[in-house]
């Protein structure tokens, strides 16, 4: 017993002050939301498009307006590395979620669109959100960094958000993975078992677009091909802070003053 | 085993496919059976299409006593005499061959699919799989069956478990996987494409460094690329950080499963601290982007090395306080001792790997048996225990955490100068192959790459440690209380997607 108390004292209090205080420190080499300066782009170069493993980099109709679909991006920085002109630079901005799929596409100087949730849903879920997590082909990285939100440092419970064991107890699903054909039925059945109204949150490139597995005949290119999605959280995997920020933004629990 | 029948190669060395003799199937079969009987492990056994229109079988027998891998090969058409009846290690491999290629191992006792409904699409049109939906069943008064999954209670990957119980006692557990099948091996054929390294980094997400290293070593062998010394050191650091993070997470999860919350809470946080160390290397907590063909993609400057050292010390002291608390708590030890026992002979028969094997007293560790990269220069002592129970699997983890932390520190103190990555990894040579073994944090990772006449992958085989070890979990549950399943499961903590590919 004495040991337990001693260890308790030694380990100390570790829950972060975010979102009231500053967010936890991100690694120096962290790849967050990309920034694009199309004016630097050399016409006809297109090396970024060639090296991208998932087809996330593309051009608009103007021919040189580079854009990155962060819903497909693995944040491998290959495009940034080949761009001698510096048109693509990954920032350390962890705020990346969107409530509309098309808002995940990052363009030159574009601001990130706000995450939205209907008033009724916010009234229902704003103070207590119970989620059932379904891994459908997830590699265990998105799962792990979702799970980490339950540890004392992040303490998701303080926001009234909790992961529950049964879809019957849940207000929605948090889905990871590209959704293999072998998991389609189980995912659908879990979704059906959640009472209405329900939310669907997809976390990670796989769940948004199939990620590296996009267009494999074995998978369904993510959950959005099968279910209506309310929140998209990009990353491979998203940093826990990106996931937490997305959830808090969805429920409008971030004080105005808390910047990046 | 005669050397003319098989090709003996060191871990991660390339060889010409033509140098690997094609044996008559009976000889091949006998080579595998005799090799395993003599103490080798069947690290891989798989099929790929041969030029002749037949299928080529290839077996990789890792021989710890000789420190090499013996490759045996044969050609088959629609069927061949199964190896499993005389060599249980082959059983899941042969089921896989049957599922993927529709080649029937005649006499296999349990020819069920390995990954369920979705057979690989390039396979010959499959005949109905034998017993696709059947489970082994026990009958009798008061016998009952419990079915769990694929969607589980926690935040965890999907799989299906069937328990045959009498009262609380489990007589048999059958594990049905395949829900995570994403078609990695199929997609590798014809590559490497820009996606290849990303398949490897997401093959089992918690083993990003392990699978990426196994892949890179295969590519380096086949393209005759040399990794600079500094790159080898940093790979070692990345791999051992991965081991430390996962082991500490597992120790916390096991504590949580017996309701000992202090260790659970502390370890959950400390695991995150270790992932953040990996993120200091490359920006990603799982080490994505770090390991690339030819070396590593990121170098460390003196400031980062110093900061890593400082934080490693904190991790070491926090982890000691969190974990030792558990050893000193009788109620925890009472739940760990004697639960989920796998006897050493069962471990040997099944060919278990990694922590699960070392906890049974099998001193099996690729870093020591088939040293590669940095482990050729710096040795990590093997950690074993001999009770084969939950306690042993926890204790071996803790011992490995301490040794890996010491190892990482040693590498950081002795970092050589120079480049971290070869200037360019050349193209893959044609018609060559390599078998790479890595000690991932779960155990032996085996990759086999074979190239075609154009230097593209003709076949790419991945064997995750979980492929060998899921059966170990099933055996650990025999005669256990069903309520001990979560604890036993955590003590193995196997990968679903690593198995399902
Ligand atoms: S960072 Fe994203 S957009 Fe750029 S190459 Fe990698 S996956 Fe493609």
Task: Please explain how this structure is put together.
The complex is a heterodimer of chains A (260) and B (501). Chain A has 260 residues and is an alpha/beta fold. Chain A has a domain at 119-250: 3-Layer(aba) Sandwich (Rossmann fold). Chain A is built from 8 helices and 10 strands. A 5-stranded parallel sheet of chain A has the order 7-6-8-9-10, sandwiched between helices. Chain A has a 3-stranded antiparallel sheet with strand order 2-3-5, with no helix packed on it. In chain A, strands 1-4 form a two-stranded antiparallel ribbon. In chain A, strand 8, helix 6 (181-193) and strand 9 form a beta-alpha-beta unit. Chain A is globular. The mean pLDDT of chain A is 89. With 501 residues, chain B is an alpha+beta fold. Chain B folds into 2 domains: 3-106, NADH:ubiquinone oxidoreductase Nqo5 subunit (Beta Polymerase, domain 2, 2-Layer Sandwich), CATH 3.30.460.80; 184-417 and 428-500, Cytochrome-c3 Hydrogenase, chain B (Orthogonal Bundle), CATH 1.10.645. In chain B, strand 12 (291-292) and strand 13 form a beta hairpin. In chain B, helix 6 packs antiparallel against helix 13, helix 6 runs antiparallel to helix 15 and helix 13 packs parallel to helix 15 (485-492). Residues 117-132 of chain B have low confidence and may be disordered. Classes of the chains: A alpha/beta (260), B alpha+beta (501). At the A-B interface, helix 1, strand 6, helix 5 and helix 6 of A face helix 7, helix 8 and helix 16 of B. The structure holds iron/sulfur cluster. Iron/sulfur cluster (SF4) is lined by residues 51-54, 56-57, 68, 73-79 of chain A.
